[in-house]
Design brief:
By secondary structure, this protein is α+β, with helices and mostly antiparallel strands. The chain has 2 domains: about 270 residues, Beta-galactosidase, Chain A, domain 5 (Distorted Sandwich); about 190 residues, no CATH class. Helices cover about 40% and strands about 20% of the residues. The strands form 3 sheets. Strands 6, 8, 9, 10, 11, 13, 14, 16, 17 and 20 form a 10-stranded antiparallel beta sheet that branches. Helix 8 packs across helix 9, helix 10 packs across helix 17 and helix 13 packs antiparallel against helix 16. InterPro entries: Membr_insert_YidC, Membr_insert_YidC_N, YidC/ALB3/OXA1/COX18, YidC/Oxa/ALB_C, YidC_ALB_C, YidC_periplasmic_sf.
Length: about 600
C-alpha cells in the first residue's frame, strides 16, 4: 500500500508555494506603484523649495470653471500659481458718514454690519434706526454680501479677509473698495457713496482668470423688524394690497410678490428697471444700468421669534419670514445703483431708473389708493405750509372734508323731514296689512303701496344713507394712507406719541364711542325699525370704539374729530325751522307709540 502522508507536513508543499506566489505578486505591485509615482511626480521647484501652500489648497479641477474657447483646463493652472495673494491679516472697520446715514463696514466679507439712518428712530428705543437686522444677518448674511450659485464659494467670499482702501471714518462723497485674492480667486467690491440714499456698486469676481457670476445681496430684512408684531403687521394683506415683499418693475408697472409665494433661490430674469425688497416703511432697491441683462435671486429664510419679547426664554416661539434679494447681471459683473432708505414719496420721486421711472410705485396703497394718496398729498401740503404738526394737519383735513359733506347732510335732513311728514300714511298702510303673515303674498301689495306713496312724494328712503356711505370710503382711505406713510411714523400730537400706533391711554377710542353715540342721538332716523335704531344708537359706537383700540391713533383722531363736527352741524340744523318741524313730528310719533305701548329710542326725533 502506498504510504499516506500529511500534506501540511511536507516541506515545500502546495501551501508554501502559494504563499511564495502571493509574496512575489505583492512585491511586484508595490514596486510598480513606486515606479509609476516617480514617473508622474511634478518637477521639483527651483532652489529645492517646497510647493507653496497656496498651490496645495488650490480648488479641485471639478470646481474650476469651464475653460475658455481654445484653452485647456490645464492651461489655467499657471494663473492660479502666479496670482499674488491679497488678504488682510486682521479684521478692521470703515465707516462712511453723511448727514443722512452712517454705514459701518467690516473687511471680513467686505459687508455692512451697521446702516444707521439718522433721521429715523427705532420703534423700541428712541435711537437712530439701524437698517441692518443683526439677529437675522448673523444667520443669513449681512448687507452687500455676495451670492453665487455655489454655496461653498458664497461662504468663502463672505468670510474672506478683504483689504479695504480706507479704514476709520470717511465722509461722503467717498469711494470704498475691498480687494481679495488667493488661490486663483480674485474679488473686487467698490462702493461709491453720495450724500443721498443712493450708492453705486461695482463687483467683479474671477477664478483663474475666468469670470464668476456673483450677485450683490441684501439678504436679511431690515432693522425695524425686531419683534413678532412688527413682522406680522408688515405682512401681505390681499384685500388692501401688499405692504412688504419683493418689488419687481418692468417699465412703470410694479409687480409685488408676497412672502408666502417667494421660494428661496429662484432666479427672476430681466428686464428689470428695479428690483429689491422692502418692509412697511423702508426699502433696499437695486437699479440696474441695463434692465434687459438684469437678474435677481429671491432669498427667503425663516427666523424664530418669541411671542412675548419681555420673556423670550419662557415664551412660545413663532417662525417669521425673512426676505432678501440678490441682484446682478447675466454678464457676471455687478454695476448697479442701490437705494437704501425710507419709503418717503418725496425721496422716491427723486430717484430714477435707467428708463427714467421713479420708485414711487413701491409705496402701495392698495385698492383705496385713489383716496389714500390724494389725502396724504393734502396732509403733506398742510404740513409743509404752516402746520408743522401732523395731528393738527389731520384735524384741518377733517374740518375740510366735513365742510365739503355739509350739503349731503342738508339733503339728508330734507329727505328725513319728507319721510316724517308721510309717516302717518305709512303707518296706516302697515296697519291695513298687519293681519297677514310675512309669507302671505298680500304683503307684497303693502310694499308696493308704500313705494308708490314715496314715489308720489318724491322721497328716496336710501338718500339718508348718503353721508354715511361717503364717510366710510374716506375712513378706509385714511386708514390705508396712515398705515403705509412713513411721514406719520412716530409723529406725535398732544398725548399721542405715535399717530401710526394705537392710543396707549385709550382716550381716543372712548371719545369715539361717546361722540358717535351723540351723532346717532341727534340725527333724525324716521321710519327706521326700533331694533335697527337700538343697533345704530349703541352697537355701532361700540363696534367703532373697539376697532379704534387696534389701529393707528391718527385714524381715531380723524374719526373722533369728524364725529364732533357732525354733532355740531346736526345741532345747528336741528335749531332751524326744518329742524323744529322734525322735532314736533318726532314728538307726535313718540306720543302715538307710547299710547300703543311701543318703545321709543329717541323722543327728540
Amino acid at each position: 500500500m502506498p504510504e499516506i502522508q500529511n500534506p501540511n507536513q511536507q516541506s515545500g508543499g502546495p501551501d508554501s508555494r502559494t504563499l511564495l506566489i502571493y509574496a512575489v505578486i505583492f512585491l511586484a505591485i508595490f514596486l510598480g506603484l513606486q515606479y509609476f509615482r516617480s514617473k508622474n511626480a511634478p518637477p521639483a521647484p527651483p532652489n529645492g523649495k517646497h510647493t507653496p501652500a497656496a498651490q496645495k489648497n488650490s480648488p479641485a479641477p471639478s470646481a474650476a470653471p469651464a475653460s475658455a474657447p481654445g484653452q485647456t483646463a490645464s492651461g489655467n493652472a499657471p494663473a492660479a500659481a502666479t496670482t499674488p495673494a491679497v488678504l488682510a491679516a486682521a479684521e478692521t472697520t470703515t465707516t462712511v458718514e453723511s448727514p443722512l446715514y452712517r454705514v459701518t463696514f467690516t473687511n471680513r466679507g467686505g459687508v455692512a454690519k451697521s446702516w444707521i439712518l439718522k433721521k429715523y428712530t427705532n420703534d423700541a428705543q428712541n435711537r437712530p434706526l439701524d437698517m441692518v437686522n443683526d439677529k437675522a444677518a448673523q444667520q443669513f448674511g449681512y448687507p452687500l454680501s455676495l451670492y453665487t450659485y455655489d454655496a461653498a464659494l458664497t461662504q468663502q467670499l463672505n468670510q474672506a479677509m478683504y483689504v479695504p482702501s480706507a479704514t476709520g471714518t470717511i465722509q461722503a462723497p467717498a469711494t470704498l473698495t475691498f480687494r481679495y485674492s488667493a488661490n486663483g480667486l480674485t474679488v473686487e467690491k467698490t462702493f461709491r457713496f453720495e450724500k443721498s440714499y443712493v450708492l453705486e456698486t461695482d463687483v467683479k469676481v474671477t477664478r483663474n482668470g475666468a469670470p464668476v457670476t456673483a450677485l450683490l445681496a441684501w439678504p436679511s430684512g431690515f432693522g425695524d423688524q425686531e419683534t413678532l408684531p412688527q413682522y406680522q403687521n408688515a405682512q401681505i394683506d390681499q384685500e388692501t394690497g401688499a405692504k412688504t415683499g419683493f418689488h419687481l418693475a418692468g417699465g412703470p408697472n410694479v409687480k409685488q410678490i408676497e412672502p408666502k409665494k417667494v421660494s428661496g433661490g429662484d432666479t427672476v430674469q430681466g428686464p428689470l428697471d428695479y428690483a429689491g425688497v422692502s418692509d412697511l416703511y423702508f426699502a433696499s432697491i437695486f437699479l440696474p444700468p441695463n434692465p434687459d441683462n438684469a437678474l435677481m435671486v429671491t432669498l427667503h429664510h425663516a427666523l424664530e421669534l418669541p411671542r412675548d419679547p419681555a420673556h423670550p426664554k419662557t415664551s412660545k416661539m413663532d417662525q417669521v419670514p425673512v426676505l432678501g434679494a440678490a441682484v446682478g447681471s447675466t454678464t457676471g459683473e455687478v454695476h448697479d445703483r442701490l437705494f437704501v432708505g425710507p419709503k418717503a414719496l418725496d425721496v422716491l420721486k427723486s430717484i430714477h431708473t435707467a428708463y427714467h421711472f421713479n420708485l414711487e410705485g413701491i409705496v402701495h396703497y392698495g385698492f383705496w389708493g385713489w383716496i389714500a394718496k390724494p389725502m396724504f398729498l393734502v396732509l403733506q401740503f398742510f404740513h409743509n405750509h404752516g402746520i408743522p404738526n401732523w395731528g393738527w394737519a389731520i384735524l384741518l383735513l377733517t374740518l375740510i372734508l366735513n365742510a365739503a359733506m355739509m350739503p349731503t347732510r342738508v339733503t339728508m335732513m330734507k329727505k328725513s323731514l319728507a319721510m316724517m311728514r308721510i309717516q302717518p300714511q305709512m303707518d296706516a298702510i302697515k296697519a291695513k296689512y298687519a293681519k297677514y303673515k310675512a309669507t302671505d303674498p298680500r304683503k307684497q301689495e303693502m310694499n308696493k303701496e308704500m313705494m308708490d306713496l314715496q314715489k308720489r312724494e318724491g322721497i328716496n328712503m336710501f338718500a339718508g344713507c348718503l353721508p354715511m356711505l361717503l364717510q366710510y370710503p374716506l375712513l378706509i382711505g385714511f386708514y390705508r394712507m396712515l398705515e403705509v406713510t412713513i411721514a406719520l411714523r412716530h409723529a406725535h400730537w398732544m398725548w399721542l406719541p405715535d399717530l401710526s400706533a394705537p392710543d396707549p391711554y385709550y382716550i381716543l377710542p372712548i371719545f369715539v364711542v361717546v361722540s358717535m353715540f351723540l351723532v346717532q342721538f341727534f340725527t333724525p332716523s324716521p321710519g327706521v325699525d326700533p331694533a335697527q335704531q337700538r343697533m345704530m344708537a349703541f352697537m355701532m359706537p361700540a363696534f367703532f370704539g373697539f376697532m379704534m383700540l387696534h389701529i393707528g391713533s391718527g385714524v381715531a383722531l380723524y374719526w373722533a374729530g369728524g364725529n364732533i363736527l357732525g354733532v355740531g352741524q346736526q345741532w345747528v340744523m336741528n335749531s332751524t325751522g326744518m329742524g323744529r318741524e322734525m322735532k314736533e313730528l318726532a314728538a307726535k310719533r313718540a306720543a302715538r307709540k307710547r299710547a300703543q305701548g311701543g318703545k321709543v329710542i329717541n323722543a327728540r326725533r
